[in-house]
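Cross-posting from the modeling subforum.

Setting up a comparison between two proteins and wanted a second pair of eyes on the formatting. Protein 1 (sequence, then structure tokens):
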Amino acid sequence: MTSIVSKHAFPELFSRPTAHQFGSNWDSIAVARIINDNSDVARTPAFLFLGRKEAELLRANLGEAWGEESVTSFHQIYYMGLNVVTVDVDSYISTGGSKGIRKPKSSGLRLAS
């Protein structure tokens, strides 16, 4: 099964249940936990998938911080380092994709102990 979201295909997007049920306010701590639960030492998720309800909660939250006029769409919006993608369902939140964490290259210098 492949889900179509924002003109991109994401395989098995809805095979997992929503990661959190929001109340009437955006919960940054819950989102941080979702991201952390789906991360490991070498990889972090690349996308934050939000249903319509969650997208509106995030929009209101960002609007309070930056002004409503600054959050007119989620085109090229990143939240906690993840690209926000709105999915066409009433309520949903999950992460997906994968991005590697770059490790610094060694300079080749050795420090004497």
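Protein 2 (same layout):
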Amino acid sequence: MKNNQLEFIKLIDNALEIANEMQLQEITNQEMLDNLLNKLTIIKNQVINDNLSTSQKGATLGLSRQVSDWVESLESPLLTAVSKIDKYYQQKY
């Protein structure tokens, strides 16, 4: 596995860990959190299998926008984590 894939997986794992903690604490919209967990898992599997599509003209995965629509605080650790994923994808893919 390439270094950029390993780094990307670390970012995704961090977001998954934060989202799982939030799910256990039931502190946010569970349906939206479940959707995010599913999306992160799909993206992680695509990275592992080396079949994640490339960013088109600087496009992101849309995770930051998705989370900012329902997260309680714009300073949320989850929003920070998914923003890092979007930025990494935009720069490296």
